[in-house]
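Listing S7. Sequence submitted for prediction.
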Amino acid sequence: MKNNSVIFLLMIFISIASYSQEAEEVDIFIINSFVTPEVPHTFNLSFFTSEAVKASIKIDDKNEIIISDKYLEDHSAQIDFTNYKFTKSEVPYIITVENEKGIKTVSEINEIILPYDEFIETKEGSNPVTTLLFGIGLWLLPSPNLVIYQNENYFGITKEIPIVTFYSSGYAKPSANISLEYSHIYNAPISDFLRVGYKQIFYVDYIEFISPAVSTFTNFNGFNGVGAEVSLGLFNFFEAFTVYSKYRYNFQPSNLDNNFHEVSLGLYSHFFTIDL
């Protein structure tokens, strides 16, 4: 009985100690994190912490830089990337802070997206011009599109181009975008559409993202309507692209007989956009 009491008290002590250590961990809130497209390419980082700390950053798991050598709550850095070499466009980084009690806290892994191909080291023997042209070709590639209109199936192609991309949580990955999309449907009563849409992006486990969206479309000849869609980002392709599948339901509030469905498969990229 006495041994059980000692074990019970020991468990309580360990639980309290663990809770105290968790409570003393410092919260890190990233305000801004991006690489400037203009020369010299500079990594701009700013964040604040829940208490005064010293801070450092490790970029791409190899480049460690001191950000604050004094105990501060507000931290910022401008790191010149001119001489940095990376093997992919999405570069991970972690922030490590230490408070006045000597307790260290390590942030989750964040990412910055390099805005230009000149950051990327090409493989030995490859031609960077060929690589660039190949990337542009993929970016311009239209998506095959199955259209179901008035109980008939039609084949079409569609090309969606993000125009404005929005970021949150430290400029790591896009959280939303506004896009333009042109669609051509072969041998259909209504064959050409231009649409403007807003897409929200949610990152999930097992696939890249789930993205609901709304859009408005027109054929500039009286056929106007609204579309509601959902996209699944399936996997990344050559770092800069994500293969996605999309379902969209289109309807005309004034004439429900013209409602139609679309299913497509394509490539998503957000490099050639205005970033906000």
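Caption to Listing S7: primary sequence and predicted structure tokens for the chain studied. Residues 16-22, 121-125 have pLDDT under 50 and may be disordered. The first helix runs from residue 2 to 24.
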